[in-house]
């Protein structure tokens, strides 16, 4: 049985270790809106923020060139930082870059590796809780959109998506549909129909 | 700091190819919705959406004193507030120059159109009606001028007129309507590189070089305001005046058909 | 409390708007009313119309307000100058709105998991578009939904409501006219999961027994308020789920 749960709602009557929950002697409670699977005791976030892990691919915007390092806006509670000596091309404020998380430091700074400029195109910001669904199992959803639109798409786990070329409007529509319907089943099929030009 | 979802090049390239991000034509408004009487405690009100831009105008009347140079006229007081609730780029604190400009431009259209006869707001010597128009921005996605003017015109044209019984202002019950002589609307254009668009959204406003607002009634232009460091050629402005007269018919229809 | 001639607030056991003493005004909450915000809610509670919006978490600025251990919350409660049936109000913060902003912030400092975001700030804006008594409670109730919708982790969704006193009678959820002429007003915010009191204010006169009974009324009303809050949060999801149900 799966159900939608909201912060403070009891998931189990015994303390269980699940991410984004708190426990007391009476049970375990969710701290976020999520989809809770009673049998598997899993909580899938419906709304949630990005929690940086090393190796995460992110997209950000250069906020400041500090000479020895770049400050990168990740639209997150964390400030991105990349050392300039590891960057090949000169970057300037306003540039959109993709990068990899090295680690989250104390005080809320995310150290980034290999920031690479993404030229042209546009970005869109979505709830980071939706990025796994947009990517899909083994990249399947993303591949479907890319092939259906001819748009180049890079997804940052921090919820920022970069798009360039092809039928960019259609790609945007498809992504927004996934954002809205991430918790439903049969989504892959509906996106397929959308991309093939039939009204869903 | 807010992240822009597009770069200037993206917007400029798109316009050069004859397209806009949301698929509109250069001289199209976004979807406009008006809810009049949205805040019944106010004497008049209207909640207006231009796409994702949302503006609420509340109209209040109260007893005040005339200005020394206009002893026989009531006061028209228009102000705009860019609520921090409406955008990450709006900050709490005293009104920004942008908020003051917005309030003043909306005020000028209403004032010069004679929409409100300030002489009719005279009560007795030393006592007049103050007419407050508060433009409240609830979500920002560009073109606050036109949404604000449309909301203000709708709120005024549906407002009730309080009455004075002794010292007490009666605001409820059997009241007449505030007398409105005219309807003013405005059209705002953004110039981005060589292209000119009507009703710029937030992304377009972020990269516009110049902006011009033209407020008019059915007959004449009533107020204009050019903004930012870019410029318009006289020929361009003449063309935009024609478009304004044309488009304002559409806007007036929205006011007429607005629902509670 | 209010001046002027005092109207009779309870006639034959009914209040002026026809409610029983322990009856809430109609309550409606909608999620996502402010498109630009990370989380938002619109509440209509009686004749109150209020928007609450959350931005962040993001780097706290200016730097000297940063807490290296946890996030800070900034809160700004404000009434629109056209919110009341009376004269045009003043704009900008005053002593009343500053106090409400402070106690509201403290409610959310209790339930938000601030330690997860050291050095960050979360901004809460509560704008009262129309007021009819009990705006701080309605604002907190809406803000709790806005926070939950934002995805920022929190231990519970608090609710708030006030109890007033007219003569010897306790009345729940006072409107403006009741508030003006009542003998006491006690707004309270509670975390329903624990029953803990997160906001408590009172003015007027109440006995210990009345405070105890008042808190019980509030707890009971909380069941209804919490239900409306939770349903508002689930509604957008259930709508899409329903859409594709065979």
- What's the average pLDDT of chain B? 95
Largest beta sheet: strand ordering of chain C: 3-4-5-7-6
User: Helix amount of chain B, in percent?
Assistant: 25-40%
Order of helices and strands of chain C: EEEEEEHEHEEHEEEH
- How many helices of chain C does DSSP assign? 4
* Protein structure class of chain B: alpha+beta
- CATH classification class of chain B: Alpha Beta
Q: Name the CATH homologous superfamily of chain B.
A: GHMP Kinase, N-terminal domain
Number of domain modules of chain B = 1
CATH homologous superfamily classification of chain C: GHMP Kinase, N-terminal domain
Architecture overview:
The complex is a heterotrimer of chains A (200), B (260) and C (246). Chain A has helices at 131-135, 140-149, 168-181, 187-195; strands spanning 2-5, 10-12, 21-24, 27-30, 34-37, 42-45, 57-65, 69-73, 79-83, 96-105, 109-117, 122-125, 152-155, 160-164. In chain A, the strands form four sheets. Chain A has a five-stranded mixed β-barrel. A three-stranded antiparallel beta sheet of chain A has the order 1-5-6, with no helix packed on it. In chain A, helix 2 packs parallel to helix 4 (187-195) and helix 3 (168-181) packs antiparallel against helix 4 (187-195). Chain A is built from four helices and 14 strands. Chain B has 260 residues and is an alpha+beta fold. Chain B has one domain: GHMP Kinase, N-terminal domain (Ribosomal Protein S5, domain 2). Chain B is 26% helix and 32% strand. In chain B, the strands form four sheets. In chain B, strands 1, 2, 3, 4, 5 and 6 form a six-stranded mixed beta sheet that branches. A four-stranded antiparallel beta sheet of chain B has the order 12-11-13-14. Chain B has a two-stranded antiparallel ribbon with strand order 7-10. In chain B, helix 2 packs across helix 3. Chain B is elongated and about 65 Å long. The model of chain B has no long low-confidence stretch (mean pLDDT 95). Chain C has 246 residues and is α+β, with helices and mostly antiparallel strands. Chain C has four helices and twelve strands. Chain C has helices spanning 95-111, 135-150, 176-181, 208-243, and strands at residues 10-11, 14-15, 27-31, 39-45, 48-59, 72-79, 120-130, 159-166, 169-172, 184-191, 196-200, 203-204. In chain C, a hairpin with a 4-residue loop joins strand 10 (184-191) and strand 11 (196-200). In chain C, helix 1 crosses helix 2 and helix 2 runs parallel beside helix 4. The mean pLDDT of chain C is 94. The chains are: A alpha+beta (200), B alpha+beta (260), C alpha+beta (246). Chains in contact: A-B, A-C, B-C. Chain A binds chain B through residues 61, 63, 73, 75, 94, 96, 120-125, 160, 169, and chain B through 1, 3-7, 9-10, 13, 21, 23.
């Amino acid at each position: 049985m799966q159900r939608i749960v909201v912060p403070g709602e009891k998931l189990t009557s015994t303390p269980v270790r699940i991410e984004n929950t708190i426990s007391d002697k009476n049970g375990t409670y969710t701290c976020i809106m999520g989809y809770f699977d009673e049998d598997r005791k899993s909580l899938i976030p419906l709304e949630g923020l990005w929690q940086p892990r090393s190796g995460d691919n992110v997209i950000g915007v250069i906020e400041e060139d500090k000479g020895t390092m770049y400050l990168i806006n990740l639209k997150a509670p964390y400030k991105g930082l990349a050392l300039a000596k590891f960057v090949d091309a000169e970057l300037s404020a306003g540039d959109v870059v993709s990068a990899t998380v090295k680690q989250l430091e104390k005080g809320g700074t995310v150290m980034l590796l290999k920031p690479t400029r993404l030229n042209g195109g546009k970005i869109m910001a979505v709830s980071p809780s939706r990025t796994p669904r947009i990517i899909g199992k083994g990249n399947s959803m993303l591949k479907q959109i890319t092939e259906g639109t001819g748009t180049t798409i890079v997804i940052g786990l921090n919820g920022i998506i970069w798009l360039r070329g092809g039928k960019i409007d259609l790609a945007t529509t498809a992504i927004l549909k996934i954002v809205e319907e991430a918790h439903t089943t049969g989504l892959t099929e509906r996106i397929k129909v959308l991309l093939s030009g039939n009204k869903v | 700091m807010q992240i822009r979802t597009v770069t200037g090049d993206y917007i400029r390239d798109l316009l050069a190819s004859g397209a806009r991000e949301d698929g509109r034509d250069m001289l199209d408004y976004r979807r406009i919705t008006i809810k009049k009487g949205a805040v019944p405690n106010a004497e008049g009100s209207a909640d207006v959406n231009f796409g994702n831009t949302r503006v609420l105008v509340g109209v209040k009347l109260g007893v005040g004193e005339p200005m020394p140079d206009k002893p026989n006229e009531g006061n028209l007081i228009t102000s705009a507030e860019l609520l921090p609730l409406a955008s990450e780029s709006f900050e709490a604190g005293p009104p920004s120059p942008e908020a003051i400009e917005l309030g003043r431009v909306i005020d000028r259209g209403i004032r010069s159109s004679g929409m409100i006869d300030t002489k009719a707001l005279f009560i007795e010597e030393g006592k007049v009606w103050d007419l407050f128009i508060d433009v409240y921005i609830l979500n920002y996605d560009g073109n606050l001028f036109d949404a604000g003017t449309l909301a203000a015109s709708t709120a005024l044209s549906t407002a009730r007129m309080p009455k004075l019984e002794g010292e007490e202002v009666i605001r409820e019950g059997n009241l007449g309507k505030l007398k409105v002589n005219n309807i003013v609307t405005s059209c705002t254009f953004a110039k981005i590189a060589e292209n000119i668009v009507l009703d710029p959204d937030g992304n377009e406003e972020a990269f516009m070089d110049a902006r011009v607002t033209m407020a008019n009634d059915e007959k004449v232009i009533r107020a204009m305001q050019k903004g930012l460091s870019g410029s318009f050629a006289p020929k361009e402005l003449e063309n935009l005046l024609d478009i304004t007269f044309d488009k304002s018919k559409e806007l007036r229809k929205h006011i007429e058909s607005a629902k509670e | 409390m209010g001046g002027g001639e005092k109207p009779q607030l309870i006639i034959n056991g009914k209040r002026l708007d026809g409610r029983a003493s322990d009856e809430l005004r109609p309550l409606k909450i909608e999620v996502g009313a402010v498109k630009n915000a990370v989380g938002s809610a619109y509440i209509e509670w009686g004749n109150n119309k209020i928007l609450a919006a959350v931005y962040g978490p993001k780097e706290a600025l200016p730097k000297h307000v940063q807490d290296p251990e946890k996030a800070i919350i900034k809160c700004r409660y404000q009434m629109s100058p056209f919110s009341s049936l009376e004269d045009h109000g003043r704009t900008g913060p005053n002593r009343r709105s500053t106090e409400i902003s402070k106690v509201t912030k403290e409610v959310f400092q209790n339930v938000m998991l601030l330690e997860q975001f050291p050095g960050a700030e979360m901004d809460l804006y509560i704008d009262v578009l129309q007021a009819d008594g009990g705006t701080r409670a309605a604002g907190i109730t809406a803000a709790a939904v806005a926070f939950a919708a934002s995805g920022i982790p929190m231990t519970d969704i608090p609710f708030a409501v006030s109890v007033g006193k007219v003569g010897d009678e306790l009345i729940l959820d006072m409107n403006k006219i009741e508030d003006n002429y009542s003998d006491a007003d006690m707004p309270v915010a509670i975390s329903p999961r624990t029953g803990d009191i997160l906001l408590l204010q009172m003015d007027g006169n109440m006995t210990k027994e009345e405070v105890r009974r008042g808190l019980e009324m509030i707890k009971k009303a909380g069941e209804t308020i919490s239900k409306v809050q939770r349903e508002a949060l689930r509604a957008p999801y259930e709508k899409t789920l329903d859409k594709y149900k065979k």
